[in-house]
Amino acid sequence: MTENEIISYITEYGVKAKKAANILATASAGVKNQVLANAAKLLIENTDKIIAENTIDVENAAANGMSVPMQDRLRLTPDRIKGMAEGLTQLIALDDPIGTIIEGYKRPNGLEIIKKRVPLGVIGIIFEARPNVTADAAGLCIKSGNACILRGGKEALRSNMAVASVFAEALEDAGLPRDCVQLLDNTDREIATAMMRLNKYIDVLIPRGGAGLIRAVVNNASVPVIQTGTGNCHVYIDNEANKEMAVSVIMNAKTQRPSVCNAAETLLVNAEIAESFLPVIAKELATKKVELRCCDKTYTVLSKLFLDTTVIEASHEDWDTEYDDLILAIKVVSDYKEAVEHINNHGTGHSEAIITDNYNKAKYFQENVDAACVYVNASTRFTDGFEFGFGAEIGISNQKLHTRGPMGLMELTTIKYVINGNGQIRQ
Amino acid sequence: MTENEIISYITEYGVKAKKAANILATASAGVKNQVLANAAKLLIENTDKIIAENTIDVENAAANGMSVPMQDRLRLTPDRIKGMAEGLTQLIALDDPIGTIIEGYKRPNGLEIIKKRVPLGVIGIIFEARPNVTADAAGLCIKSGNACILRGGKEALRSNMAVASVFAEALEDAGLPRDCVQLLDNTDREIATAMMRLNKYIDVLIPRGGAGLIRAVVNNASVPVIQTGTGNCHVYIDNEANKEMAVSVIMNAKTQRPSVCNAAETLLVNAEIAESFLPVIAKELATKKVELRCCDKTYTVLSKLFLDTTVIEASHEDWDTEYDDLILAIKVVSDYKEAVEHINNHGTGHSEAIITDNYNKAKYFQENVDAACVYVNASTRFTDGFEFGFGAEIGISNQKLHTRGPMGLMELTTIKYVINGNGQIRQ
User: Fold this and answer.
1) Cβ–Cβ gap B379/A111 under 8 Å
2) Can you give the pTM of this predicted structure?
């Protein structure tokens, strides 16, 4: 496509989305819930059709050399489609955040100022190969009153189109515009880039995917972005920690699901307990074959042991690396203050934990660590919309603008001031 | 400077700012207020020195052909410096937003989740020629616990440096790092661009200035931006409006201070009252020499009259233009719904008003107009942090991410979750 064709292609989506958003913004909770119920039903009814489209996607991907684990992420089964439908059904039970009066007051001149919760408007979501994101993101946007423009990965285009068409029908059946949920039918990179600069029609962009995708969106977008998901998380074990709890939290934070953003990547250990504690935790980590990348002091202690896993010396880059894998960097620090400094220098502002029984150290850690979620005596793995009780999640923000941490329905809203007067003019 | 030198120049500011921000974030309200009091005092004490530097700026600007009104904006007088000091003193009385517990709850697993208000961290502010912004922005950032990196205009560099050095001293005297407030001593455009991409050290960018500056920041920044100040505001006069109130609000919204973003730019008039109302308001606007740019119907009515001002036919561009001047576009619309549609198509989401005595129309207008501030029977000119009772203002957001409308101290904060456990791990 020429540059003009690209602009005209994406602008058409934008115009339709904005028009749909203005209608969806004032739809009642009842109508929005009806859309979700319709979509859940239609997903099940269309299982065969969706799987037929998905099978073509998977076959093409395999022919193009996609790895087997990636093919598995791309594949839809009746169970996975049922899971998507159940996700939508769960959203119905959640409170509608829209229309809440946050606060209101009267000014000395008699003006009544009311701060209300309203939808963001049009949300652009750029995501990678998993087609369940289409249903998930569309459901969250509808419930929070936002129109969305979805741009999925090339490999999942047929699957995504099949799921998106279910939403168009579900919307129409509830009397709302089909354009409340639109999926780009062209996955050219140039179109995605143009979408990132469609400020007139898109209010917010949320990238969902790996570090490369998020970096590309942050670097290229002029539309406001919510950056999600980069998590170089730490657990600091204080000399006054309960050691059993320390082992249990580290094992959970590192090994329960190592591929996710709230898993721990670096273990910091107080120098006083390094010689006694490091062998204990290392043996435990070795049972799960966690590779250990050690600072000098840690290496001196651990290299003497016979551990059934890789133990190597850490490089400078290790302190800044999100492995998302069964690898853990370990560093001995002189005290909790050095731990905080290390975290603020190397962390990504996601989730950080201290294990200690000392009140003052716990308080200092929570006040001085600059991150979305700061834990005392618990695993970093709890940073999650469901674990926080939001009942839903579109991602975990690790920027500071708009919101931080897990984002549920509330985080997909903004505010509007409505002001009632009786002829006030400014002096 | 080479590209490497630029990066190293701006990174040094970033490193210092982040270090200072970590200390300022936990400073007590008392200490922050002491800084403001110190700075107010030092501004007055250093009046002669600041004016000496400012005089050089103004002379250089004049020699370089700066217009006389722009020179006036650049010029500092003892009264203007006193005004800056008074602005800082007023901040002392305001509540410190930092540390508030927004909410907190216990999860079924016993985890206690607490949502706290914390500073954004490091705020970058890029602004144009008025040196009072230096004191104003620095004061707001200190009170809200944020370190700032200020980049002012080339023409005001000496004045800005003089004001910034007052803050360095005020901070030091209160025991806080001088680097809480830093001003770039090099105003090269390439450095400003590098600052807009310093994601590792700057949490939020706020441009303060004209449309060109704001566009440049939005288009070039990878750091999250709060877009401020573009205001193509409308007043819609309904057929059920109180006509005296309508005239009073229009005159106020258009002429009380036409150069600002919350001034009205387009008047929409219900067709039923067009013939009777337009001559009345046009005569009143003519007394202030407001140029009228009219739709066909309006022109048919007004061109018959002898008005002591310019009356011309509007072009398509007029509906999208923020004049910031004594010019008003006028359009006749069939009803309030067409008014809402026009506003949603041409407005910038800033401030919009309806004048009506009809409850249902007022409600429809407030629910369906997509803008930060939607007024019934009051002037758009009230969109302002002081008029809203915030006691301070850093700008007016017309994006939807983070906040909308006037931004005071509260809007310069973000949240942090602190989570207290007793060994919880995720199942």
Assistant:
1) no
2) 0.95
